[in-house]
Amino acid sequence: MMPETIKAVFFDMDGVLYDSMPNHEYTWKESFKTIGIDFPAEEAYMNEGRPGFSTIKYAFDKFLHRQATEEDIDKVYGEKTRLMKECPEAPILLGMKELLKYLNENGVKVFVVTGSKQPSLVDKLDAHFGVLKDNIVSGRDVKQGKPHPEPYLIALEKSGMKKDECMVVENAPLGVESAKAAGIYTIAVNTGKLNDQVLLDAGADKLFSNTQLLADELMKIEL
Ligand code: CA
Questions:
Q1: pLDDT, tens digit (0-9, with 9 covering 90-100), for 95-127
Q2: Can you give the pTM of this predicted structure?
Q3: Ligand 1 centroid to residue 19 C-alpha, Å
Q4: Which CATH number fits domain 21-86: 3.30.70.980, 3.40.50.1100, 1.10.150.240, 1.10.3720.10?
Q5: Residues within 5 Å of ion ligand 1 by Cβ?
Q6: CA of 48 relative to ligand 1 center, distance in Å
Q7: Which end of the chain is more exposed for a tag (fewer CB within 10 A), N or C?
């Protein structure tokens, strides 16, 4: 059930606020190529939300059938970070600027909960969406990343709200799992390349096929 009163909304960043997943898909593919892994696009979306090191460990297990060493992780992640800096700036997804403004103006607390440690977008959340540092939970703030519930539990604690006064907006199956494991109502928005069913199977309470539809619907809620 959707919360009756909404006092805080926790937004994932990549694929929810920014159309940044094409950059991640490309940089994962290219950085894995340097160590001989042909990383399928679908894997980039299935693993989205995990901390970088965790995705690298997963790929070594699955495609090279061995454990990634610290050196392997540094090499692949270093290359990914380097390539990300060369990528075009990810556009803001449709309706999201308006939605966050609407929530802010109506006294709903807005948090961004992202596995990302890459500063390129995290540093722009204030300028683009009016989200201050205190309201961001990034990859630097957690011991266990998504799909573990920790990131959303930290956001919940920071918000000072009860679980049933909050909701999460996610685009990735592991992100939905994380939010649901934290016990929070979760809306999925399918901005990527996976089937809707993957997000519903992960536990999403409601699903929108794009961010404009999501924004239109949430801006109808009386706050
Ligand atoms: Ca995401």
A1: 999 999 999 999 999 999 998 877 788 999 999
A2: 0.95
A3: 9
A4: 1.10.150.240
A5: 12, 14-15, 171-172
A6: 6
A7: N
